[in-house]
Amino acid sequence: MTGDRPEVALRPARAGDREFLARVYASTREEELAPVPWTAEQKQAFLAQQFAAQTAHYEQHYDGLTSEVILVGGEPAGRLLLARWPGETRIVDIALLPEHRGRGVGTRLLRPILEEADAGGLPVTIHVEQNNPAMSLYRRLGFAPVGEAGIYLKLERPAAGAQANTAS
Hints:
34% of the residues lie in helices and 29% in strands. By secondary structure, it is an alpha+beta fold.
């Protein structure tokens, strides 16, 4: 623990984490599915199918993908999918359970990733829904829009020292 804040750490995801990771995914879709007139079982089946499809898509399209469980105070709190490529570091997905959102966990988690990318002179990119509440976090950390695809913005945070040299 740092002061009164629990430690934020990562560990590689394991096969036994699949149920937890599916729960994290489902928590990111709760608000969207709330007005849908399905039973709880129908929503659960839909979310399971969507999680499986998303997982397969990421594994197929993101070479070098690492899947990590975010730990807060030693307890599983979310997931981080990261791809490290020669020209950039891509945050493929980052998600926290609702009780861990808005508490500084994202900032403490992302700073070491940004420092690692800076050391390699690499930008960090992420696709984010335009109405995502975490948008203010990304802006505070130096991310700016560099592209748009439907409801998603591609954000980029240039490597430290490269901001002045980067053209959008």
